């Protein structure tokens, strides 16, 4: 859920381990933790746990290594993803999200939705599929899947 008060999941686990003394950090990491804590406390910054989990699930369930093995993300990567999403949803989120959602109603958005399949693309996060994708409707988000031969 989009929140401007929530502590990111993986960062919270990391911070708790540091506070319990299980992980020792240097001055640079400590300064970064202070910066992240200040972002969490700042109401202009938002965190969306569903976006983070959707991204992590995508990486772990849809990506494979070049040798064909499954990709398993390190906790440090998940932590970085947490913090990256915190930075994305800042004070600009309202105007950004509303303008992106309005894309579906533009001439370009309508044309792309109607014709993307001809060029091997799909609308990645369609309406009413959040329960499947874990991501809300994103009318601007297309993915190349290849053309049918």
Tell me the domain tally: 2
N-C termini distance: 40 Å
Overall pLDDT level: 77
Radius of gyration: 19 Å
Strand order of the largest sheet: 1-2
Largest sheet: 2 strands, antiparallel
Order of helices and strands: EHHEHHHHEHE
The helix content is: 40-55%
Approximate shape: globular
Kindly estimate the percentage of residues that lie in beta strands according to DSSP. Answer: 5-15%
Question: What does this entry look like structurally?
Answer:
The chain has 149 residues and is mainly alpha-helical. It folds into two domains: 91 residues, no CATH class; 58 residues, no CATH class. Helix content is 51%, strand content 11%. The chain has a two-stranded antiparallel sheet. The longest helix has 15 residues. The radius of gyration is 19 Å and the shape is globular. The protein starts with a strand and ends in a 5-residue tail after the last strand. About 6% of the residues have low confidence.
Produce a short descriptive summary.
The chain is mostly helical and about 150 residues long.
Ordered list of secondary-structure elements with their pairings:
Blueprint: E1 2-3, H1 9-19, H2 27-41, E2 47-48, H3 49-62, H4 75-88, H5 93-101, H6 107-115, E3 121-125, H7 130-133, E4 138-144
Antiparallel strand pairs: 1-2, 3-4
Helix pairs in contact: 1-4, 3-4
Short key terms for the protein model shown above:
single chain, 149 residues, mainly alpha, two-stranded antiparallel sheet, two-stranded antiparallel ribbon, 4 strands, globular
